[in-house]
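A favour, since you know our structure tokens better than I do. It will help me judge whether the discrete encoding reads sensibly. The space below this message is yours for that.
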Amino acid sequence: MLRQLMLSKKIEQRKASLAELLEKEQELKTRSEGLEAAIDEAKTDEEIALVEEEADKLESEVNDLDEKKGKLEGEISALEGELEQLNSKDHGTDERSVQEKRNINQGGEIRMRGNGFFKDFSLEQRSSFLAREDVKDFLANTRGLIGQQRAISGAELTIPEVMLDLLRDNLNRYSKLISKVRLKPVPGKARQNISGSIPEGVWIEAVGSLNELELKFNQVEVDGYKVGGFIPVPNATLEDSDLNLASEIMDALGQAIGLAVDKAILYGTGTKMPLGIATRLAQASKPSSWDVDAPDWTDLRTSNLLKINPSGMTAEAFFAALLLDLGVARPNYAIGGTFWAMNRKTKMALMSKAISFNAAGAIVAGMNNTMPIEGGEIIELDFVPDNDIIGGYGSLYLLAERAGAQLAASEHVRFIEDQTMFKGTARYDGMPVFGESFVIVNINNASATTTRDFQKDYANTELGALGVTSVAGTASGDTLITVTGAEVSGTTLGYKVAGKVVDVKSGDSNVGYTAFTTPDDITAATGKVITMVEFDANGRAIKVGSAQVVAKA
């Protein structure tokens, strides 16, 4: 048993080293892309020579990394083979089960290759995981949903805790920020203690009496708002092995939740979702919901929403200004360093300036996925606007996670596509505890963007009302339709004529409707019913009205 524990420890250590190499591999890939751009921009012989020198260094590092990665993968494979042999001689002992559960719960970075979500599990670990009674029941019930004859099963499946642990540990494959903030599982609405300002000690005589120091603790309250949606899983997958089924469902859950979490951490409105960093920095006044025990609210619009005018700046002056602005984020109470979120275009802009800043290319080589000189990790997120850099000390963003993710399923929603739709949900809340620890800098002299659009919650939004009237039209068989109550701009109208009012739900698609501009004549028979719908920019129903047709004889 000691030999097995030692082998497991060695495997764990080597996998951690391999994960670091894989991160380095991604950094080298990013450098390679940056060099490709630099080659296109190089004009003089001197610039071309510098880029060529950097390319040679990069090639050498890539070869060295490949050699180290191959060696580690070989060692891991050999150790896992030895561990499987030992385990095969020791069937089902309690000690081994405890160790396997520990290995499973440790998670780590798991990539979708080979066996997908469970790729980094040994054969023995996968078998043990899928043999658990709670996991077997979950998978059996999930597969059973496809055989039911009802459009909506009505059944809900509680995901076993061991699977939730894996999902939490692997959200970093989809949520790039969840590992950069303070993630705290909570059972429900909870209050989190936050240390306040540290008092200054008082100097006294050696024999004097000590002064009383006041140490204040703040509290913030977090809830658990729901995030989720529909998840399609091919029926062929449901009919295959338990491993594929578990992998597909959990992979889809991670993708759906991860993107929503990242966007909320940066731009969440604080209403039925976490409060985002940008939202907090843009607050013009203390919100009515601000907890009385929370840290003091301060107006950060001037101090922490900044911009740089790069016009006429040398690269050196630009980076000097950028560092001063990023330095506004206060590290008080922080544990760990900074992160800086931006889109790829902004990151490439920084790299191009770094090339100019240092003729030897040292800053570019050292930049990779870190902010030049400052050192905080750069996180690429497509939804961050061009030229905006948003971030700070992630440990001072509290992300509360509720337990109890659930699934329900329908086989008929996408019957033709041969897919079963799974409803997946999770619950989070969060907020930047100290807004002063974050900053947004626009590097093109524009005001920082502090809001982003989220997917609209049509399912829980009531349809608005349209006024629709029908009178005899100009020509025989025509009716003049007039619509009132529509939005001023940004929407479209569409109609259907039938024997009765068409059933319309909030968020329904505009497919099948005839476009209409009010007022106008249409051809329709007297006594029929026209249903008029207003669609938003996404082509989704937001208002509806109807009228009985009156046509000209």
The radius of gyration is 29 Å. Residues 223 and 238 are 35 Å apart (CA to CA). The chain is about 35% helix and 25% strand. Residues 1-131 form one domain.
